[in-house]
Design a protein that fits this description.
4-stranded antiparallel beta sheet
């Protein structure tokens, strides 16, 4: 082709797309829902609208949330960056973002799009208000592409979030409230028979379990009706032929052993994308086709920007997976779990098409840690009731969820074991499996180094860094301040949990970095939980300058040492009267888990509970969750929690 003929094509490619060439983009999001749809083969699904939509869409078979809980996942979605790289991976955290980290709809607005959000934000940062203002033309319970503020013909990006499948509806609200608020709105043929629902093997087969599983599927049917109504509005407005529609959920279902866990039950989500005929050239396959590419939430922002013809900022950490600019398919996707409400943890996952690798850095704590919000659900209560009454006859999958500890590493063949029931590390690995395990371990380390994952830092240490540098954590991690954090060394200490020798861990107990010392204590506790001589050797760690180290050491000492329990409980008691809620919560949770061994702190916990139970803010709520649970164990009265809608 001559330069004269080529020049117009080059100029056209360099110019922004015209309004007529730019698709509207509609996101229909569900909460707390695994791929429980007929189009995904769920035998209990009654989802006619979404199944019809799937026939017109591209169906992703390997789409994954960033985290198995809402706000950290939503932080990752809106910024296009991994929440652990920003310091926003702890549930309901309030850490700031660098000013140049924006919600990706900001760039759509700059490209001429009208952006609306209805209505959930939950961005998990103290900069949430800024993100909302920059990202959305309208963000409210009435936000809609039909807004009068949208100019005629202006392309739009609209998000509609549906809460009917949220954990509150599927398990936390009392059953009669669910019946009134959800089930009563369903026609009889959409209501599920508890006797006929499929029961996963990690659940006991009891009437309560079956009723609650049927309830979950009823909520999915209610969602299906809501989605059908919204799609009808798009048709009525004559916009369906100009709009790319995404349907997905913010993580796996809200049921026990799903939400909060890094297994596929908590991380795998439905993802359907419908391309109208005029934009079929952007689709990876024909309508009704499936795609087995690995996709995760940080990929959504760059993909939508690319579809809209808007520039994709280099700082975004995901990959474009649709359109002509799609990147090569990744070999792995990352996942994370840190503190969720009052429950402390640090776990990471690496998922390939064939395998799932999970690294638990706090394996002395259960996957099924008790948590006030989840424990309100009868299904959660039934699981633990059944486990206590049938301790000697639980199946291995049932035991894995309620066990007080877990493996430091888990590795599953998801093709042979799609429900992640058999940890391959409990047996001998084949050469192929060993090679795959090594590759997944290496991918885990490479990814956390690439994104500068901050999850190995106790929240108190994070706050200390912020106070010292007066800059967001991301800037500190990027060495934009005087502080030069050694994340690699901190993670290396966390890697010793479940793997390190006594000598390796003891060598770190007096390290100059508080986070390293904290991981040394956790590693020793997991490896040598009842070692009296070791506990005596570590006695002085209860007087460490860092609160997380003091708390972790005192919690272990109070649990395992008859000789030093009284002193250890006193150490925890002193931490309960601090002003920093994140530190108080860590100590309070330790006391809660100690139960009767911390009886001496009953008066202090009563005071703590009274001060926080009706105070505003997430910190007081989580502290009152934990202190109230302790008081309940001690037979003391507490004010019941009620998260049902007001009438």
């Amino acid at each position: 082709m001559t330069l004269r003929l080529l020049l117009p094509a080059l100029l056209a490619a360099a110019l922004p797309l015209s309004a007529a060439d730019r698709p509207n983009i509609l996101w229909i999001t569900a909460e707390d829902m695994s791929p429980a749809l007929g189009s995904y083969g769920d035998p209990d699904a009654k989802t006619p609208n979404l199944d019809a939509f799937a026939k017109e869409s591209v169906r992703y078979t390997r789409a994954f949330a960033a985290a198995p809980v809402c706000s950290p996942s939503r932080s990752s979605i809106v910024t296009g960056m991994w929440a652990p790289s920003l310091g926003t991976s702890q549930m309901r955290s309030t850490f700031p973002l660098p000013p140049d980290v924006k919600g990706f709809p900001t760039y759509l607005r700059e490209a001429g799009y009208f952006t609306t959000n209805r209505v959930k934000t939950d961005y998990n940062t103290s900069d949430a208000a800024r993100l909302i203002e920059e990202s959305w033309n309208e963000s409210s319970g009435r936000a809609h592409w039909r807004s009068e503020a949208r100019k005629e013909g202006q392309p739009f990006f609209a998000v509609f979030n549906h809460e009917v499948t949220h954990q509150s509806r599927t398990m936390v609200w009392p059953y009669e409230v669910f019946q009134r608020e959800v089930q009563s709105k369903l026609p009889p043929d959409q209501i599920h028979d508890p006797a006929k629902v499929a029961l996963p093997p990690y659940y006991p087969d009891t009437p309560v379990m079956r009723r609650e599983l049927a309830r979950f599927h009823d909520c999915v049917s209610a969602l299906d009706a809501e989605v059908g109504a919204l799609l009808k509005q798009l048709e009525e407005d004559g916009l369906a032929d100009d709009t790319i529609v995404f349907f997905y959920s913010d993580h796996g279902s809200g049921m026990p052993r799903h939400k909060r866990l890094l297994h596929d039950s908590g991380m795998r989500v439905p993802l359907l994308v419908r391309f109208p005929e005029k934009f079929q050239h952007l689709a990876p396959t024909a309508p009704g086709g499936t795609v087995d590419r690995l996709v995760t939430f940080v990929d959504f922002a760059p993909t939508v920007l690319a579809l809209a013809g808007a520039p994709v900022p280099e700082a975004l950490q995901g990959e474009v997976f649709l359109g002509p600019d799609a990147a090569p398919a990744p070999e792995y996707v990352y996942g994370f779990r840190d503190r969720i409400d009052e429950v402390f943890d640090l776990s990471r996952s690496v998922r390939s098409k064939r395998y799932l690798y999970i690294r638990n850095h706090m394996p002395h704590l259960s996957w099924g840690q008790r948590s006030v919000y989840s424990d309100l659900g009868e299904i959660q209560q039934e699981i633990f009731r059944h486990a206590a009454a049938n301790a000697g006859t639980l199946t291995k999958p049932q035991q894995a969820y309620v066990s007080p500890t877990r493996s430091a590493e888990e590795f599953y063949d998801v093709e042979a074991d799609p429900q992640n029931l058999a940890n391959l590390l409990d047996g001998d690995l084949s050469p192929e499996q060993q090679a795959a395990l090594d590759a997944h371990r290496a991918a885990y380390v490479a990814k956390r180094e690439e994104i500068l994952d901050l999850g190995a830092l106790p929240e108190t240490v994070m706050v200390d860094w912020l106070a010292e540098e007066e800059r967001p954590l991301r800037d500190i991690a990027l060495c934009k301040t005087d502080h030069r954090p050694d994340l690699a060394t901190i993670w290396a200490a966390a890697d010793l949990v479940g793997k390190g020798t006594r000598e390796e861990l003891l060598a770190l107990v007096h390290d100059g970095d508080a986070a390293v010392r904290c991981w040394a204590v956790i590693g020793l506790r997991y490896a040598f939980p009842q070692d009296a001589a070791l506990l005596g050797e570590l006695y002085d760690s209860m007087d460490d300058i860092s609160a997380p180290v003091r708390i972790e050491m005192a919690a272990w000492m109070a649990e395992a040492s008859d000789q030093h329990r009284a002193e250890a409980v006193q150490v925890l008691g002193r931490e309960l009267v601090g002003e920093d809620w994140w530190t108080v919560l860590r100590a309070c949770r330790a006391v809660e888990l100690l139960g009767e061994k911390a009886t001496a702190l009953l008066p202090v916990m009563e005071t703590l509970y009274a001060r926080n139970r009706f105070a505003e803010g997430v910190g007081p709520q989580f502290i009152s969750f934990s202190s109230g649970a302790f008081l309940k164990q001690m037979g003391m009265p507490t004010e019941p929690w009620n998260f049902t809608p007001k009438r």
